[in-house]
Design a protein that fits this description.
binds 2-acetamido-2-deoxy-beta-D-glucopyranose, six-stranded mixed beta sheet, 6 helices, Nitrilase/N-carbamoyl-D-aminoacid amidohydrolase, seven-stranded antiparallel beta sheet, alpha+beta, single chain
C-alpha cells in the first residue's frame, strides 16, 4: 500500500465513521452503454491516420462520458467491447486500428505522462489521460497487436503472419498508469482476432474497492476465465461486452444479473447499443441490487451512462480495512468474510423458509419437444390456474409449483421446460436448464420462441436437482425488467430452488441455467 493510498483510505474511513455507517465500504461504479460510430466499410483496410480519425470520434464521446461519470462521483468507469473500432473487420483490414500494448506485469507505463515511450499508441495515451484527468479507474476495450516471441518454434501457436491480434481490455488507474491488460479467451465469430496461447487470469487492485477481474463478452459463459477468477476469490468482475440478445434465456440484463446472483459477485457490464445486431442492455449488478438499462424497441439509438454506489465485496480489502478501522476508531464488528467467494450453499444462504420438497413421483402431463435457443427442450404446459408440474429430460427433472394471478393475462400460454445436454450452436455449452417460459403464441409449438412482453403474473417455486453447483437464476418480466427473486438456494446435494411472488410485471422467463463446465469439451 502506498502512502497516498493509506491517506485516501484513512480519510475515507474517517468520513464514513463520522457521517453514514451504511456507506462504510462502498464505492461508486459507472458503466457506459455506447452507441458506436462505425466504419461503414470495415473490410476495406484503412491507413493508420484514417483509422485514428475514426476512433477519435468514439473517444470524443468517451471523453464527455468520463467527465460526466466523474461529476457523479464515479471511482471506476467501464466502456464496452469493440466500442472504439466497431466490428466485422477481417484480419488484415483491422491493421490500422491496432496498437501494441505493453504488458503491465513486465513494466510500469503511464501513457499520459510518458507519451514518447512508444510510438503508435495514441489510443492508449488518450484513455490514460482520460483516467488521469477525471481521477477515476477506467477500463476500455481495444485491439492489440503482439509479435510472437519465437516464430521458429514449431509448437508455438503463432499465426503465419508472425504476430497475434487480440481483442483486449485495458485498465488504467486514476493517475493514468496502465495497470492491466487482458486478452479475450472465448472469441465469437471474430475473424480479425486470435485466441491467446494460454487463458489469461488478469486482475487489478484499486484503493477504494480492492480487486477486480477482467473478462470480455462471450467469456462470461465459460470456466476460463470467469469461473477461474471466481475460484481465486475474485468477487468483482469488469465486463465490457457487445452482447447480442437471445431470448428467452440469454438476454443481456437477464443473464448478467443471473451470473451475479448465482456466483454471489458484482458484475460491471457495459454493452454496446446497436439495434440492427440487437445489442443493448447494460448494468451494475451486485448480489443485492441491480442498476441497469435496457432500451425498448423504438427508443432512440443512443448511449447511456449508469452510475451506482455499491458495496465492496473483495474479502481481502474488507479484512484490511476493518483491521485499519479497529486501529483508528475502534469500530464496530468487522464485516469481512474471506469465505464468501463462489456459490450459494444451503447453510450460508438467505434465511427464507425452506420450500416444500419436490416429489419426483408426481404424475406428469403430456410432454412435447420444442426447440429453445436451438436446443430440444422437453416441455409440459401449465393448463390450470394453479398446480404442480414435473418435466424431465432423461434423468434431469424440473419441478414447478405455480399460481397464476386471476386478474392478469389468463389467455397467455406458459410451459415448463427441461434440457440436459450440450448446446452446440455458436459454441459448445454443456447445460442443465429448468425454464418456465411464456410461449410466443397460443400453440404449443411456439413454446421456446422469443417473446418480450407478458401480462400474466405468476407466483412460483421452480426447482431442479443439478449435477453442478454453477446454476444461474433469473426472473425476467415484461419489457426486459429483471426482478430480484424472493428466494434462491443451491443446496449441498445439488437441489436448486428459485422462488418468487408478487411480480411487478407479467412473467416472460423464470430460469435456472446450470453450466456443466467440466463437460464442455467432451
Ligand atoms: C457483422 O457481423 C454480424 C455478426 O457476425 C453479422 O450478423 C452482420 O451481418 C455483419 N454485418 C456486416 C455489415 O457485415
Ligand atoms: C518513433 O518513430 C520515430 C520515427 O519513425 C523514430 O525516430 C523513433 O525512434 C521511434 N520511437 C520509438 C520509441 O520507437
Ligand atoms: C455472499 O456474499 C456475502 C458477503 O458479500 C455473504 O454474506 C453471503 O453469505 C454470501 N452468500 C453465499 C450464498 O455464499
Ligand atoms: C433430452 O430430450 C431430447 C429431445 O427429446 C432427447 O433427444 C435427449 O436424448 C434427451 N436427453 C436425455 C439425457 O435423455
Ligand atoms: C405478496 O402480496 C400479498 C398480498 O399483498 C402478501 O400477503 C404477501 O405477503 C406478499 N408475499 C411476499 C413474498 O412478499
Amino acid at each position: 500500500m502506498t502512502l497516498l493510498h493509506a491517506i485516501v483510505r484513512f480519510s475515507l474511513i474517517m468520513a464514513v465513521v463520522q457521517t453514514e455507517p451504511v456507506l462504510d465500504s462502498s464505492y461508486v461504479a459507472a458503466v457506459y452503454e455506447h452507441n458506436p460510430i462505425l466504419n461503414p466499410e470495415p473490410r476495406v483496410p484503412l491507413a493508420r491516420t484514417a483509422a485514428l480519425q475514426h476512433m477519435q470520434k468514439n473517444l470524443d464521446i468517451y471523453e464527455e462520458q468520463a467527465a460526466e461519470a466523474a461529476r457523479q462521483g464515479a471511482q471506476i468507469l467501464v466502456f464496452p467491447e469493440d466500442g472504439l473500432q466497431g466490428f466485422n473487420f477481417s484480419r488484415s483490414s483491422i491493421s490500422g486500428y491496432l496498437e501494441t500494448i505493453p504488458d503491465p506485469q513486465q513494466e510500469s507505463w503511464n501513457p499520459c505522462t510518458e507519451p514518447g515511450k512508444y510510438n503508435n499508441t495514441e489510443v492508449l495515451q488518450r484513455l490514460s489521460c482520460m483516467a488521469r484527468r477525471n481521477n477515476l479507474y477506467l477500463v476500455a476495450n481495444m485491439p492489440d497487436l503482439q509479435p510472437c516471441p519465437l516464430k521458429t518454434d514449431p509448437t508455438s501457436s503463432c499465426p503465419s503472419d508472425g504476430h497475434w491480434q487480440f481483442n483486449t481490455n485495458v485498465a488504467f488507474s486514476s493517475d493514468g498508469l496502465l495497470v492491466a491488460r487482458y486478452h479475450k479467451q472465448n472469441l465469437y465469430y471474430e475473424e480479425s482476432f486470435d485466441t491467446p496461447p494460454q487463458p489469461e487470469i488478469i486482475t487489478f487492485d484499486t484503493p477504494f474497492a480492492g480487486r477486480f477481474g477482467l473478462i470480455v463478452c462471450f467469456d462470461i459463459l465459460f470456466h476460463e476465465p470467469t469461473i477461474a477468477l471466481v475460484k481465486k476469490g475474485v468477487r468483482q468482475l469488469v465486463f465490457p461486452t457487445a452482447w447480442m440478445n437471445a431470448l428467452p434465456l440469454l438476454d443481456s440484463v437477464q443473464f448478467h444479473r443471473a451470473l451475479s446472483l448465482g456466483a454471489n459477485i458484482t458484475v460491471l457490464a457495459a454493452n454496446l447499443r446497436h439495434d440492427r445486431l440487437n445489442m443493448r442492455g447494460s448494468g451494475i449488478y451486485t448480489p443485492f441490487s441491480a442498476t441497469y438499462h435496457h432500451a425498448q424497441r423504438g427508443d432512440p439509438e443512443e448511449g447511456r451512462l449508469l452510475v451506482a454506489r455499491v458495496p465492496v465485496l473483495d474479502p481481502e480489502w474488507l479484512e484490511q480495512r476493518s483491521a485499519t478501522q479497529e486501529r483508528v476508531v475502534n469500530a464496530e464488528s468487522p464485516t469481512s468474510t474471506a469465505a464468501d467467494s463462489g456459490f450459494c450453499h444451503k447453510d450460508s444462504c438467505s434465511d427464507a423458509p425452506p420450500p416444500a420438497t419436490a416429489s419426483s413421483a408426481l404424475p406428469s402431463s403430456a410432454t412435447f419437444t420444442s426447440s429453445m435457443m436451438k436446443d430440444p427442450f422437453t416441455f409440459v404446459l401449465l393448463n390450470e390456474a394453479e398446480g404442480k408440474l414435473n418435466v424431465c429430460n432423461g434423468t434431469f427433472c424440473c419441478h414447478l409449483q405455480y399460481r397464476r394471478s386471476p386478474h392478469s393475462g389468463s389467455k397467455e400460454l406458459y410451459a415448463l421446460g427441461a434440457f440436459a445436454g450440450t448446446h452446440t450452436a455458436d459454441g459448445r455449452l454443456a447445460l442443465q436448464v429448468c425454464a418456465l417460459v411464456r410461449c410466443a403464441g397460443s400453440d404449443a409449438s411456439s413454446c421456446g420462441q422469443k417473446v418480450e412482453e407478458a401480462e400474466s403474473k405468476i407466483d412460483f417455486l421452480l426447482e431442479g436437482k443439478f449435477d453442478t453447483r454453477y446454476v444461474y437464476p433469473s426472473v425476467l418480466a415484461s419489457k426486459m425488467v429483471v426482478e430480484q427473486p424472493d428466494y434462491f438456494e443451491i443446496a449441498a446435494d445439488g437441489r436448486v430452488t428459485l422462488k418468487h411472488s408478487n411480480m411487478t410485471g407479467g412473467l416472460v422467463t423464470a430460469c435456472l441455467y446450470g453450466r456443466m463446465y467440466q463437460l464442455d469439451k467432451k
